[in-house]
């Protein structure tokens, strides 16, 4: 989608620090990290939000990809948190489905 920030990262029009890449998904470091490790995993195909996801297979593969990112970042043993902010109450600010992968410190609960 031409005016989507994350589509521009997928196309290389906007630079990002890539953590993991495969034909269907890419993961890159968040510009405003909220934890020592903060990576975003996205489908390369434009999906506006979790509310617009109609592909069960993609959902499963995205989670598996995110798990692989966490392993690659050395987070698997101590643990990590996956977050999918959805629409305004969820705090979504970029309208391209993304999974936050947060780790490197203990997470608080409940989230803010
Ligand atoms: P959300 O609020 O869940 O939509 O998350 C959007 C995330 O994208 C925020 O954590 C931002 O810091 C991050 N972000 C925005 N622009 C960029 C960018 N150009 N490269 C990497 N991360 C970004």
Name the features.
globular; HIT family, subunit A; single chain; 5 strands; alpha+beta; 22% strand; 112 residues; binds adenosine monophosphate
Largest sheet: 5 strands, antiparallel
Any idea what the CATH superfamily is called? HIT-like
How many domains comprise the coordinates? Answer: 1
Percentage of residues assigned to helices: 25-40%
The CATH topology corresponds to: HIT family, subunit A
Q: What gyration radius follows from the Cα positions, in whole Å?
A: 13 Å
Which residue ranges are poorly predicted, with pLDDT under 50 across at least 5 consecutive positions?
Answer: none
Ligands (ions, cofactors included) = adenosine monophosphate
The class by helix and strand makeup works out as: alpha+beta
Strand content: 15-25%
Q: What is the CATH class? A: Alpha Beta
What is the structure about, briefly put?
The protein has 112 residues and is of the alpha+beta class.
Molecular structure report:
The protein has 112 residues and is an alpha+beta fold. The protein has one domain: HIT family, subunit A (2-Layer Sandwich), CATH 3.30.428.10. The protein has helices spanning 5-11, 56-72, 87-90, and strands spanning 18-21, 25-29, 37-43, 80-83, 99-103. The chain has a 5-stranded antiparallel beta sheet, covered by helices on one side. The N and C termini lie far apart (31 Å). 26% of the residues are buried. The model has no long low-confidence stretch (mean pLDDT 97). It binds adenosine monophosphate (AMP). The site of adenosine monophosphate has 13 residues, from loops.
């Amino acid at each position: 989608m031409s005016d989507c920030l994350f589509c521009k990262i997928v196309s290389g029009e906007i630079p990002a620090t890539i953590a993991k890449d495969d034909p269907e998904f890419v993961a890159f470091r968040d510009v405003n990290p909220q934890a020592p490790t903060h990576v975003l995993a996205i489908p390369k195909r434009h999906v506006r939000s979790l509310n617009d996801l109609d592909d069960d297979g993609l959902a499963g593969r995205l989670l598996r990809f995110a798990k692989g990112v966490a392993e690659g970042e050395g987070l698997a043993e101590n643990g990590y948190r996956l977050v999918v902010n959805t629409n305004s109450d969820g705090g979504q600010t970029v309208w391209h489905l993304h999974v936050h992968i947060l780790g490197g410190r203990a997470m608080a609960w409940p989230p803010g």
